[in-house]
Specification:
The chain has seven helices and no strands. It has helices at 6-15, 17-29, 38-72, 80-83, 86-105, 113-134, 150-155. Helix 3 (38-72) packs across helix 6 (113-134). The longest helix is centred in the first third of the chain and has 35 residues, at 38-72. The N and C termini lie far apart (74 Å).
């Protein structure tokens, strides 16, 4: 171990984050708690939680964006209502799988999803609005509040019309 003092460890935090992590991990392993850079370590732990929450919110937003576009805006795609938006389904499935993986890795994250629903919908509205502009579609009036529940986000089946549906 290279660190000789708390001050040198705090300095290392600014210069070489990876080394700082290794040094703190070693200090904790050796139960040398007096030298641990607790201030920065606690800040990093809080940032880790924020990062995971941001990822969950982002994935929820993408799921809602693509669900909404699939259900309400397919007619405005180049391929039209019957064939348009298939990429949205793929993205929705990928994002849902990633969100479920995240929940498996961090089970208590599910407790925070209700508070992420409104900010995730705000983000989804921005994505949908950008798509409307890019697609030169007259801006639709999007719901103010999330039109989907957490159950919808995690499990709602999306119906894809097949040739047999027309009979």
């Amino acid at each position: 171990m290279r660190t000789k003092s708390k001050d040198s460890l705090k300095e290392l935090y600014e210069k070489d984050f990876i080394q700082w992590l290794e040094e703190n991990a070693n200090l904790i392993r050796m139960e040398n708690y007096a030298l641990v850079d607790w201030e920065n370590l606690l800040e990093e732990l809080e940032d880790m939680k924020k990062s995971i929450m941001r990822e969950a919110k982002s994935r929820m937003a993408r799921i809602m964006e693509h669900m909404y576009k699939w259900e309400h805006l397919r007619a405005f795609t180049r391929a039209g209502e019957e064939r348009g938006g298939m990429g949205w389904l793929r993205t929705l499935q990928e994002q849902r799988a990633e969100l479920i993986d995240l929940l498996e890795d961090y089970p208590s994250l599910k407790n925070y999803l209700p508070e992420l629903l409104a900010p995730a919908w705000r983000l989804a509205r921005e994505y949908i609005g950008a798509w409307l502009v890019e697609s030169e579609v007259e801006k639709a009036r999007l719901p103010e509040h999330a039109p989907y529940t957490l159950e919808d986000i995690l499990h709602r089946k999306i119906h894809v019309a097949t040739e047999g549906d027309k009979e």
